[in-house]
UniProtKB/TrEMBL annotation:
Name of this protein: Valine dehydrogenase
Positions of the Glutamate/phenylalanine/leucine/valine/L-tryptophan dehydrogenase C-terminal domain: 155-364
Keywords: Branched-chain amino acid catabolism, Cytoplasm, NAD, Nucleotide-binding, Oxidoreductase
Reaction(s) this enzyme catalyzes, per UniProt: L-valine + NAD(+) + H2O = 3-methyl-2-oxobutanoate + NH4(+) + NADH + H(+)
Pfam families linked: ELFV_dehydrog, ELFV_dehydrog_N
Native organism: Streptomyces seoulensis
SUBUNIT field: Homodimer.
């Protein structure tokens, strides 16, 4: 392993900030023969080995990749804690364009990097990586999940990720409107990729009205062709201003909720699959001030990590689906805690997750 240059002082400061909980370890990886440049961030192992996916993305520079890995790893600690898993949080990012730079040799080199950590970090799929990629990584690293059923894995984790988000929406409806049914509710989905397309199916089956957008026209074309009842809009800016929108579901990259989107958002609920939806601290309070109920992203999108964690112990889909269904109860409990403590739901979720991690550290 060799150092990746270009990491700024601000990024390094974030690594050790006490208000971020601190990161235990960050590994900067490079393999010149294959062109691999990657960052593996381990935020916490208080609850067990760090578990989190591998993102393959064309970051503008190495500093941006490190910053993203740090933020995503911290989110995984909280997600795994709230999902009741015996895993800490970690995340890896591979720097590059997966359409151009993905090769078998690069993925094998990445697998060797993960294996060198001796099980402190367990990897899986994320944005830009797929089941077939994890099958390749697993040839060099036994701490790999999200593999194909043919290779002893659980397959596509986006299936249960979408199911968990759907349960979070039902809980939000129960809390806000007194009924978990989503029938006739207007749900806008920004991003209909791996998770969003499955979410569309759950919503239509319950009778919701679904509106979608995606930066890739072909993704929307596929959804509309498969489900003619789905409406499309040109872009996210149009979607968030849509009259009559009940639920907004960000299902692409993070930072969807910021100083520009929150003031114009017409939805009463935000519940989506994207990680790190709040662009900066304080956005959760802005949502609350506008009367918008926010279902914390790392709580409702935990179905996928529940699935890949189960893979380590002999995968059983129905067992995982039952665990993912509990996201409904967990989300309701967070809303109740938020009301009791007089804080936004995001803060309430953080408090519950932090307490579980603190209890685990104390028990050690």
């Amino acid at each position: 392993m060799t150092e990746v240059t270009g990491v700024t002082a601000d990024v390094l400061h974030t690594l050790f900030r006490s208000d971020q909980g601190g990161h235990e370890q960050v590994v900067l990886c490079q393999d010149r023969a294959t062109g691999l440049k990657a960052v593996i961030a381990i935020h916490s192992t208080a609850l067990g080995p760090a578990l989190g996916g591998t993102r393959f993305h064309p970051y503008p520079d190495e500093a941006a990749a490190v910053a993203d890995a740090l933020q995503l790893a911290r989110g995984m600690s909280y997600k795994n804690a709230m999902a009741g898993l015996d895993h800490g949080g970690g995340k890896a990012v591979i720097i590059g364009d997966p359409a151009r730079d993905r090769t078998e040799e690069l993925l094998l080199a990445y697998g060797r990097m993960v294996a060198s950590l001796g099980g402190r970090y367990v990897t899986a799929c994320d944005v830009g990586t797929y089941v077939a990629d994890m099958d390749v990584v697993a040839r060099e690293c036994r701490w790999t999940t999200g593999r194909s059923p043919e290779q002893g894995g659980a397959g596509d984790s986006s299936v249960l990720t979408a199911f968990g988000v759907y349960q979070g929406m039902r809980a939000s409806a129960q809390h806000l409107w007194g009924d978990p049914s989503l029938r006739d509710r207007v749900v806008g989905i920004a991003g209909v990729g791996k998770v969003g397309r499955h979410l569309v199916g759950h919503l239509l089956a319950e009778g919701a009205q679904v509106v979608v957008t995606d930066v890739r026209d072909e993704a929307v074309d596929a959804i509309v062709e498969a489900h003619p009842a789905v409406r499309r809009v040109a872009d996210t800016a149009t979607l968030i201003r849509l009259a009559g929108l009940d639920i907004y579901a960000p299902c692409a990259l993070g930072g969807a909720l910021d100083d520009h989107t929150v003031p114009v958002l017409t939805a009463s609920v935000v519940c989506g699959a994207a990680n790190n939806q709040l662009a900066h601290p304080g956005v959760e309070k802005d949502l609350e001030d506008r009367g918008i109920l926010y279902a914390p992203d790392y709580v409702v999108n935990a179905g996928g990590v529940i699935q890949v964690a189960d893979e380590l112990h002999g995968f059983d889909f129905e067992r995982c689906r039952a665990k993912a269904a509990r996201i409904f109860d967990t989300t309701l409990a967070i809303f109740a805690r938020a009301k009791a403590d007089g804080v936004p739901p995001a803060a309430a979720a953080d408090r519950i997750a932090e307490q579980r991690m603190a209890d685990a550290r104390a028990a050690r």
